[in-house]
Amino acid sequence: MSRLLERYKNEIVTGLMEELGYKNALAVPRLEKVVINMGVGKSQEEKKRLEDAAQDLAMITGQRPVITKARRSVAGFKVRKGNPVGLKVTLRGVRMYEFLDRLISIAIPRIRDFRGLKPNSFDGRGNYTLGIDEQSVFPEVDLDHMEFTQGMDITIVTTARSDEEALRLLSLLGMPFAGA
């Protein structure tokens, strides 16, 4: 079992029950899934770019990514409907907690000029999204074979009823928010 999952079950649930006034442990906010999305815009000119990004994302998450396709044509970006434009991975269960543990303890501290995550990136329903500029902050990515840097969006979906509950849950899990 993941150490973050053990910490959630043993410490965080009881703390949040007292703090938020829940009587049932199943009513306490929990993590549902983590969605990692990588937009590979230059995949039209260079086909190898999508393959390399898929390989990096698979190394980071431990799961094969799904290729996302364009929903509509955009002439300004030279994109046609149905063309591959990105990659995504949805993590649940133990893999989700393992990924979050690596993200919080290893990857986020390696970000240059990091001053904390913005606490205003919640969507109003208790879900948090953060963007990372390059995949090289993850130790699984081999810097010698990396030909380009690729950013990614990480969305953490919770069962929290409000952004305040989700902020408290994520900060107890160890997310380094600015001003917290």
Please supply descriptive tags for the structure shown above.
180 residues, alpha+beta
Q: What percent strand?
A: 15-25%
In this structure, how is the largest beta sheet organized? 5 strands, antiparallel
Distance between the termini: 28 Å
The first-level CATH class is given as Alpha Beta
Mean pLDDT: 86
Percentage of residues assigned to helices? 25-40%
CATH arch. level architecture: 2-Layer Sandwich
- And the CATH topology? 50s Ribosomal Protein L5, Chain: A
Strand order of the largest sheet: 2-3-1-5-4
H/E element order: HEHEEHEEH
Structural class: alpha+beta
The rough form would be described as: globular
Explain what you see.
With 180 residues, the protein is an alpha+beta fold. It has one domain (30-173): 50s Ribosomal Protein L5, Chain: A (2-Layer Sandwich). Helices cover 33% and strands 18% of the residues. It has a five-stranded antiparallel beta sheet. Helix 1 (3-20) crosses helix 4. The radius of gyration is 18 Å and the shape is globular. The two termini are 28 Å apart. The relative contact order is 0.21.
In short:
33% of the residues lie in helices and 18% in strands. It contains four helices and five strands; from the N terminus they run H-E-H-E-E-H-E-E-H.
Q: What order do the helices and strands come in, and which of them pair?
A:
Elements lengths: L2 H18 L10 E9 L7 H15 L4 E4 L14 E8 L1 H15 L20 E5 L19 E7 L4 H11 L7
